[in-house]
Structures are given as C-alpha cells and as structure tokens.
C-alpha cells in the first residue's frame, strides 16, 4: 500500500456553467448539479435530472463526461457533504463539481471508495467559504495497493457490504411506506377528511405545553444527570421515540423546567427552515424540554401512537401554520388551534397495534443496519491500511465485452429457491436463553441442509429464515438475535466444510464451448449434485 496523488491515477477536471432555465428541454443529455448528488446517491435516475438538448450543448460548447466518471463537489456548502458519485451514463456537469476519470492503473470503484474513506473535504481551509482548487485535488494523496487485482478485491468486498447497507435502508423505507398506507386506508387523508371524522383543535387532544430553558447563569441547574433536557436534535424524522439527550438538568433545574411523562408527543415548532417544523416523536420516559418544542400530553381518548402517525402524515399541513418570516415559528397559541381528525378510540388502538408490530420489525432492521455499518467501518479501515488478508477474498468475475468469436455463457443455472420447514422446538422456553437458541439453530441448520437439494447454501438466506421463524414462534416476545448467533453459524459452517457435509466449490462457465471454473464460490450440501 502506497500513497499517490490523484493526478497519477486520474484525470482531474471541473464542469462548466449551467445553461439558462429556458435552454433545457424535455429530452437530451442529463445535466448534473452539485445539489443533484444527494438524490442520485439515494437512487434517483439521471434521466430525471434537467436535460440538455443538442443545440444548447453545441451553443454553450459543453463537454460531455463519460459514464464511469467520478463526481464530487469542490465549492459551496455541497463540498462539505462528502458525496462521491459515479456517473451511470454520459452527462454534462456543473462547474461546482470536480470530475475524475480513472486511468488504467487504478480500479474505478476502488478510487470511489478511497475518496469516500478519505473525503477531499479535508482540503477545505475555511468552512465558512468552502472551496477546493483543482490543483489541490490533483495533489491530494490516497493509499493504493500496487496490484490492481488487490484494488478490485477491496472494492468487491466493501461493495458487497455497501449493497447490504442499501438493502437494509430500503427495507426500513418500505416499512415506513407500509405504515403510511395503513394509516390512509384506515383513516383517509387527514387534511381532506373524506371519511368525515370529528376534527377538533389540538387543545382537545391533550394538555399542550411549551418547553423552556432554566437560567444558564446558574450552573447548579445543570449540575447533575437528574433528568434529560430534550432539544429538537433529539426529534428524528426516522424514529418514533426521542433520542437520548446530551444535556441534563439537576433536581434544582427540573423544578424550573417544564416536563412531560411517557406517551407525550414532542413537536419541533421553532426552526431555521420550514422543513424542520412539525417533526415529531414520542417520549418513552419523563423528560424536560426546551422552548423550541411544543408537547402534547394526550388525553385518555387519544392513543399516543395514533397521534404520532397523524403528525407524520400531516407534517406539511402543520408547517403551513408556521410564521412566514426568516425564522419559522409555530407558537403555542397557533399550534393548539390547528384542527386534526379524531377517529374513535378503538380504531386508533387498532392502528397502534399495527405500529407496534412494524416498529418491532424496524428495530431489528435498524440493529442489523448498525451492525453492517460498523462492519463496513472496520473493514474499510483495515483495507485502506493494508491490513486485510486479501488472499482470502475471491477476485470478482469481470464483465468482458462479448464478440462473435468469443461468446461466454454461464452454463450452470440456479435452481428455483426451495421452500424450507424449520421445526418448532418441543419447549418454547429454549428461545429465551442463548444456549437454547444456539442448540435450536444447530438443529435448524441440519434440517436446512437436508432440504437443500441442488440449491447452493447461502448463510444469509438461512439466517433470515431462522430469524423469521424465531419471531413467528415467539410472537410479541421475540428475543434479540445478534452477533452470538452469527458467530455460531460461522463456526458450524466451517465444521460442516471440514467434515465434508458441505462442499466448497465454484460455478461452472463455458468459454468458446469449453467448460471451466468461474470465480464465484458456491457452498453445497455434500449429498447434492456438485
């Protein structure tokens, strides 16, 4: 592993000025702005960007950058965001972006991942006026393995984990979308109120209070961890409940503060931008809170989880009641006059039951996401320090151009995914201990291998099925399923390979009608076709 300046491994250029609004068209080549990167990294298609027709490109002498070019912002606040994007198609690029086209001595995706690990934003001298010159970018050094195959191995390994992280994020978004669909199905649009529910003012939903700040000049108000002091930072758009506070009040400070108990809805009502107004989360403990938050302590005929779902769906409606000045404010007086639908309590409870089940599943996905992000962090640190044993990483299969004289076909077709039955234990009490679950996991692995047939063994598929079966058997009291079980599975799989019950092989491909091994490692049950 050696450090080299970017100029030795990539051509570094900048984009060009943007055409005028009337010079874009409904068809043409995408134009990428610095502000486009966030959406592109989130999955937005380049074809949905502004499109430049041929006559505009010719008139403005725009340079077309090829598919595979690496983009990141070099000026403006976007330069501080560390967004690294690879063009999926040829495109025109704005002048605020730097463009790297990789040379033959570097693997393109390795370069992207290295820039993600060592972001060029570290070159910014003044955060108030972020800017990086092309010369600074050209001289910026990153670590790089001598062998390009090792670059490919690192990119392949980290890319796999990136894919799993993206998959988990997608699952979480799908669960949020599910709850939104359920809410709209049960209650209709809360603003239009086509189902004709009662629509009282918020003051009829519960006691509304605005937080405050005990005097900072008296340090004794903040001298102990007696009670959390919640701020808008603790209200996340992605979480039902508030996060742990950084700052705490003392017993003396708590007397001067305003507090709410478990089940209160906290709503951000003072913010620099309207987007933050209306962000809401529930309390699952007694807390104090500051003056940027209005809280609703629900009455007995209001289910807190329904109230949370109502605010989640109605955020834009809540924002419309905020002041129109530079600093967005929703005063307590205006807040408590907002009208909201209030369906029957039993229907609220039915929705809340669904929320609880979905949130339990979300919690597990969030833990899985956190584990994967930690894994990525650990792997990337080792990879870019040259501390990974890359000899154990299979070189990913290439995707070569196919010519008439050299046609490559994958001969071995994957069988249809079989359906597996994981037997229930005689006593469900075994689910509540680590040893019991380890024993059950071993039995399930044997059952899985017995039913595997010709299908390749995939550890993730087995663990997903085992986890789902565990939750099914445990119903609402499912135990945590984490690193212990994953480590146990790894140990068992290695034992099965050593004992010959699982065979490690590779896929078969055909090149010019000659069969040979490919680069994909496959695990199969010994009794199945190899």
Strand percentage, roughly? 15-25%
Number of helices: 14
CATH class of the largest domain: Alpha Beta
User: How many domains?
Assistant: 3
**Can you count the beta strands?**
22
| Helix content range | 25-40%
Shape descriptor reads: globular
CATH fold topology of the largest domain: Adenine-n6-DNA-methyltransferase TaqI, Chain A, domain 2
Low-confidence segments, ≥5 residues, pLDDT <50? 399-419, 517-521
Main sheet overview: 4 strands, antiparallel
State the end-to-end CA separation: 38 Å
| Rg calc | 28 Å
CATH architecture of the largest domain: Alpha-Beta Complex
Mean pLDDT: 85
Q: Structural class given helices, strands, pairing?
A: alpha+beta
Spatial arrangement of strands, main beta sheet: 2-8-5-6
CATH superfamily of the largest domain: DNA methylase specificity domains
Summarize the structure.
With 530 residues, the chain is an alpha+beta fold. The chain has helices at residues 6-9, 36-41, 54-60, 108-117, 134-139, 148-187, 251-256, 304-313, 315-319, 332-335, 345-385, 434-451, 459-474, 483-499, and strands at 2-5, 10-14, 29-32, 50-52, 70-73, 85-86, 92-93, 97-102, 141-144, 206-210, 227-230, 248-249, 259-260, 265-268, 270-271, 280-282, 287-289, 293-298, 328-329, 408-410, 502-511, 514-525. It is globular.
